[in-house]
């Protein structure tokens, strides 16, 4: 998404008309060099599937468009599969009332993808022009917008081919205005009447998933005081700025030899690590630093929230009715939280169109009272309703907007609300502030969804807005327990029951899946996940699921299981000592690491497997318990208990933190390597004359 929306005077309209009449920048095809035709690898990235020979982006405010041009060399069969088809994702349409009225900066802008052209160049220099018409497909439809992809496949591509293609993305400023939330649109009405239009600022993502030999970025802008946040090493390139006598500003970047984005397991969101330039224009707003940005823009944001929260008598009456029986602050707040959780979260179901609300005698959602009356709302609207109910009940309650750390890492130096995703609530209970996540369906009272923990963003206070950080859940808040009661027969097949219990993060994910689909789909999903963990011939059937719609209770699945676990080896049978890790691959095979290891959330996974053995089967090993620990971050314990014709295997894994830095990687890897060795131990049965 573009980094920022900005208004500008319509005095440039004659220039716009002139620009439209002359057409877009022409980009000629580039003759390949012999070196490019013959190359088979890129020394800096051995084994790379492809390499970008040249990439160019030209943004022109007078045309309301950006033109993209790419020359790419296919180096391997994997590259052939990955890059011969191009899918350009864009927002196709937005309804004016369908965008969240609280989302003042994240405006989905409708685009048109035009002027698609391309060609394939074979290693011998033969050129195959792109002649087919790209086709459109819908990817997502939610919240009043449609996300589409324009897809085209390059012709006759082989390993060694050079792919060359270009296209333009255009937007309509009137559509931007129509797409604005009502409260934001009304605040700009005076500007529009005075003759103001809108532009979108580009964001230069210099680093991609492929090595880039050369790249050029150009922006022909009507803005004069552009501020730049750089996350790019000066060795790659520096933005050059030139002011034209006509009032335009030209920004140019030449980049070379850009390494690809890091690709490692368990890493922070790629976008937070990628090198990029972000642009802003704060002319006349008194913003000259990160502190003044978050102060000034934060106050605008907080004012919009307070306006939505309001002080409706309907909200007060409902809050009074809900808390009437509560004898403590905690009990009263729990009742309010349960009320919000009982409402329809349209981010999981669907947003109702304005005409639907009108036909039902309703109106557009403009304040918290509307959410309560309609008994539905988006995640943000539900979070604000909870704050409204809490305030109406006498609590000190505030809103905090946070970055979803599954997508990004909050950066205070990134001067835009675009990096923020979701709203959570902070309420003072018995003199202490606590964090709540009423916008996350099925999130337990007093907890945050893991995506909203250990992240940052602006929050309301009594007097101002400040940047804050959310707490990290402990491992006790997210637990998975798997208990199998199985009977082994003389062939080594185990048949019995498996009970799975989840609380916290894993339970939220499964419950939300059911809310989007149904419990049958969740059963299928669980069976698939279990088959991926268990030995390959496992037969799994989920028989029932308890508490699927109650986020305050453990989620429990009852499953029938049949699996061949023990294979004959002479007079013995051998089975995995850890049933659920029998197919687990080592987590960290690489000996070195350059970026932090980043886990989703702290958790505890506890397994208990009870085998009833055939007569005369005796357990020979292993007999020594295994215990491992990595600092205060992780622990592992595996034990075995034997009895007459029985064996009970227990495994307890705890992850207490989410980040390990490269300096800690060696010890972290040692821990997980030891864990993998322990999990792969064999359970040996002396079968004798088993019956």
Describe this structure as you would to a colleague.
The chain is α+β, with helices and mostly antiparallel strands and about 700 residues long. It has three domains: about 5-200, no CATH class; about 290-470, C8orf32 fold (Roll); about 475-685, Jelly Rolls. It contains 16 helices and 37 strands. The strands form ten sheets. An eight-stranded mixed β-sheet has the order 6-5-9-3-2-12-15-14. An eight-stranded mixed β-sheet has the order 26-27-25-24-31-35-34-33. The protein has a four-stranded antiparallel β-sheet with strand order 28-29-37-32, with no helix packed on it. Helix 9 (about 315-325) crosses helix 13 and helix 10 runs antiparallel to helix 13. The protein starts with a strand and ends in a 5-residue tail after the last strand. Residues about 5-25, about 95-100, about 105 and about 175-195 have low confidence and may be disordered.
Briefly, what is this?
This protein is an alpha+beta fold and 691 residues long. Helices cover 23% and strands 36% of the residues.
């Amino acid at each position: 998404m573009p980094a920022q929306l900005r208004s500008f005077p319509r005095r440039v309209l004659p220039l716009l008309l002139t620009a439209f009449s002359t057409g877009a920048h022409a980009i000629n095809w580039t003759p390949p060099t012999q070196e490019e035709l013959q190359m088979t690898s890129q020394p800096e990235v051995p084994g790379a599937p492809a390499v970008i020979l040249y990439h160019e982006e030209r943004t022109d405010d007078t045309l309301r468009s950006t033109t993209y041009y790419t020359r790419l060399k296919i180096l391997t069969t994997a590259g052939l599969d990955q890059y011969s088809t191009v899918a350009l994702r864009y927002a196709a349409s937005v309804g004016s009332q369908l965008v969240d009225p609280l989302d003042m900066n994240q405006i989905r802008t409708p685009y048109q993808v035009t002027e698609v052209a391309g060609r394939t160049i074979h290693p011998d220099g033969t050129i195959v022009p792109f002649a087919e018409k790209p086709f459109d497909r819908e990817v997502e439809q939610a919240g009043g917008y449609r996300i589409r992809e324009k897809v085209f496949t390059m012709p006759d591509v082989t390993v060694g081919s050079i792919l060359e293609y270009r296209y333009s993305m255009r937007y309509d400023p009137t559509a931007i205005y129509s797409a604005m939330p009502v409260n934001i649109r009304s605040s700009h009405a005076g500007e529009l009447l005075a003759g103001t239009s809108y532009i979108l600022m580009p964001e230069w993502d210099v680093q991609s998933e492929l090595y880039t030999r050369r790249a050029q970025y150009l922006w022909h802008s009507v803005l004069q005081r552009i501020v730049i946040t750089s996350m790019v090493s000066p060795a790659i390139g520096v933005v050059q700025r030139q002011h034209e006598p006509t009032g335009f500003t030209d920004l140019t970047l030449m980049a070379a030899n850009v390494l690809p984005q890091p690709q490692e397991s368990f890493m922070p969101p790629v976008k937070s690590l990628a090198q990029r330039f972000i642009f802003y224009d704060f002319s006349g707003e008194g913003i000259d630093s990160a502190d003044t940005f978050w102060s000034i823009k934060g106050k605008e944001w907080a004012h919009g929230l307070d306006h939505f929260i309001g002080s409706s008598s309907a909200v007060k009456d409902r809050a009074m009715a809900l808390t009437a029986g509560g004898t403590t602050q905690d009990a009263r707040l729990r009742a309010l939280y349960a009320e919000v959780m009982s409402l329809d979260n349209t981010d999981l179901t669907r947003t109702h169109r304005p005409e639907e609300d009108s036909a039902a005698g309703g109106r557009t959602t403009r304040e918290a009272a509307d959410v309560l009356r309609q008994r539905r709302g988006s995640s943000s609207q539900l979070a604000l309703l909870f704050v409204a109910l809490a305030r109406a009940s006498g609590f000190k309650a505030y809103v905090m907007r946070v970055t979803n750390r599954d997508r990004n890492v909050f950066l205070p130096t990134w001067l835009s609300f675009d990096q923020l995703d979701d709203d959570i609530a902070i309420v003072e209970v018995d003199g202490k502030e606590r964090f709540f996540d009423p916008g996350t369906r099925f999130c337990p009272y007093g907890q945050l969804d893991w995506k909203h923990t250990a992240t940052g963003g602006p929050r309301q206070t009594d007097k101002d807005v400040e940047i804050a950080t959310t707490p990290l859940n402990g491992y006790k808040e997210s637990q998975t327990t798997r208990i199998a009661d199985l009977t082994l027969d003389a062939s080594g097949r185990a048949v019995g029951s498996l009970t799975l219990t989840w609380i916290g993060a894993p339970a939220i994910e499964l419950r939300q899946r059911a809310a989007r689909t149904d419990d049958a789909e969740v059963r299928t999903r669980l069976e698939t996940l279990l088959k991926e963990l268990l030995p390959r011939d496992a037969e799994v059937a989920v028989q029932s699921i308890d508490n699927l719609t109650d986020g305050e209770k453990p989620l429990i699945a009852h499953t029938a299981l049949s699996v061949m676990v023990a294979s004959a080896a002479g007079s013995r049978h051998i089975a995995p000592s850890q049933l659920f890790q029998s197919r687990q691959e080592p987590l960290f095979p690489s000996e070195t690491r350059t970026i932090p290891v980043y886990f989703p959330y702290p958790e505890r996974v506890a397994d208990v497997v009870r085998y009833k053995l055939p007569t005369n089967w005796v357990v020979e090993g292993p007999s020594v318990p295994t215990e491992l620990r990595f600092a205060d971050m992780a622990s592992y314990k595996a034990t075995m208990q034997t009895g007459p014709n029985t064996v009970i295997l227990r495994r307890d894994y705890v992850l207490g933190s989410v980040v390990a830095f490269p300096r800690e990687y060696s010890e972290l890897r040692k821990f997980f390597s030891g864990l993998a060795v322990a999990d792969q131990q064999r359970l040996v049965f002396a079968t004798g004359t088993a019956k």
